[in-house]
Amino acid sequence: MPKHIVRLVLIIAAALVVAAIAPRILKVDSFYRFGHYRANAVPEIAAREPVYQTPRYCYGCHTERRAQWSAGSHKTVICEVCHGPAQGHPQDVKMTIPADAVKLCTQCHEAMPGRPKTQPQIQVAEHSGGQQCTVCHNPHSPKITVATAKVSGNAATGKQRAAACSSCHGDAGISPNDTWPNLAGQSASYLVRILTAYKTGDQTDPIMTPLAQGLSAADIQNLAAYFAGESCKSETAGKPVGDAAAGAAVAKNCTACHGEGGRGGNPAWPKLVAQKPGYLMNVLKAFRAGLRKDPMMAGVSRGLSDTDIANLAAYYAAQSCQNTK
Amino acid sequence: MTEESKPTLNARRAFLAKLGGAATCAGAAMGAATLGILPNATAKSEPGADGASFPNENYDWSKHEWAFGVDATKCIGCLRCVEACKRENDVPQNAHQFRTWVERYVHLEGDDEVHIDSQQDPVNIEASGSEKTFRFANRYKDAKVYKAFFVPKLCNHCTHPSCVQVCPTGATFRTKDGVVLVDETYCIGCRYCVQACPYGARFFNEEKHVADKCTWCYHRITKGLQPACVEVCPVGARMFGDREDKQSPISLFIRNNRVQVLKAEMGNAPNVYYVGIDKEVN
Description:
heterodimer; A: mainly alpha; Cytochrome Bc1 Complex, Chain D, domain 2; B: alpha+beta; Alpha-Beta Plaits
């Protein structure tokens, strides 16, 4: 055999030997176990620990929050969406309580083209005047559900029963003094709710509680129908302590529930238009001090100073019952 | 390109693959046979023959076939999925590299062109205030919007993945349960797969110096959890599940809706199914 052929055969043979042995030394065992890849990579990747723990992890301790959350409209938003991943909590990681609710909530609820109609959306400036969402909404169950009481009373029967109210609330529901509220033109649904609350003890007042306890459910319906049907009278006499113009700025935060100028929004909440300033101030201070209980008003009044309260009272007292806009 | 049907293309691919394989095998076998050192090559390609549960004792990949559903009609563009994915998977904290992302498609009145942006648009980065948080700027608030919608995107975990085909080292592969993964220890960072993906689903991770992509949170799904993006979606726009279970939400989603996949013409056979998208989305 020619020399160069022998050489060639030897080289090919050497190459084949290397090709046969090299993989045994260089190749990782699990390579080609299932295909052209390292099979052990799969259990390695699968072994990573989850960072997001799911609500089930949180349930263990936060039972109260769970009850609230799982009954509310945010039940599809898991804890870690707002509070961050729970890996390492509670040992090493402290969960975040979002500082800026407006920024957080508007991630989903800012009115924006492209968002489906079914998604509740707002313009913050119009909705709350930039106030933090958590003042009124409970983030764990944000839907505000105040049952709008049905009013089916008879105003004429209510008028007879209302004679007992006139010493404080005035004839036809226009209060003769600054301490007790006007009732004329008030939302009937609110009147039913508040009178029922006095009757059941959900709300207490040394004077109203015994009076309301003497009322039947039908009486409450009739009274509400009567007072709601009377016409609201704009405040003319007396000069309130506060500054109505300054109050207008603060009142922007109130319009979402109480309506523009306090002329009413949702019927479950009271109208504030032309209400007695002294009464408004007392009530706001009572909410602020926690003497009068309401989760929403407690939050709203917490940030108000005495001056704010006086200004607000002056603003609402000065509003005209008729919507002039 | 001339009109060619997908089966023809696939058949040609398969034929070429076989031709290449056959030529290599023939050469190797001939050489090895002459020397009598043929390693038992047949055992290598035998898949999961040992019958044991793989990848671990609690999870058997031969019992699942994962798929993902996106209902774009539900998406509100809140980007909680994007943020969760970043944190769950240790994705670099910048506004340019994502395993999943959300696109916004806006048609304005009297304008034929569709306006597309995602969370990495400079305007949206500015609205979020940082590169680590994500938010869509309300930039079309005052515009006359004819139609607008959001579309979540992620790796399609294709049945015929181009990225796997081009990987020179076997660092990326498709698992038996239908997930395309990256083996970080075998990736040499050549970025060929990043180029090959028709969906732009891969990126190069500068911190780890490897190709990076969505794994459908393989470490979660093998533990019975949902992927992080699905878990945090507040409106149920993302859906994940097992097609082996004919009654699973994903099976019903695919069966009960007119679903479509992205770039079907590429022949990759993607496994992310969409509802409520337009022709502009691909």
